[in-house]
Design goal:
mainly alpha, two-stranded antiparallel ribbon, 3 helices
């Protein structure tokens, strides 16, 4: 297997990941109860997109995958990123909500 992702494709994946992270923070930040949801969501999107583009569909040719931007299979990375990002956001929200402890005053 050969990774052929160039700087332009990597940069595009980083930008899309950060945009997803900001949107996740805006829409689910209050539900999750953490200020780090944007970073967790962006990391999930990045890992999912990179995995989909370079591992899952990495053996396909340019004729079979379109569009290819500097080695990044764009459509496939968007799908993988969405799956990875949503899993990361939901898992982080559930973990963060589960760690809040409720204290009661003794009677």
């Amino acid at each position: 297997m050969q990774f052929d992702l160039g700087l332009q494709g990597l940069g595009l994946l980083v930008v899309i990941s950060l945009v997803f992270g900001v949107v996740a923070q805006l829409f689910a930040g209050r539900w999750a109860g953490t200020h780090w949801l944007w970073l967790i969501g962006a990391a999930g999107w990045f890992i999912g997109g990179l995995f989909a583009s370079e591992v899952v569909w990495g053996t396909m040719t340019e004729a079979e995958l379109q569009p290819i931007i500097d080695g990044l299979a764009l459509d496939e990375s968007l799908l993988g990123g969405l799956i990875g990002g949503l899993i990361a956001v939901i898992a982080a929200g559930l973990v963060a909500r589960g760690t809040h402890t409720h204290t009661t005053t003794p009677v």
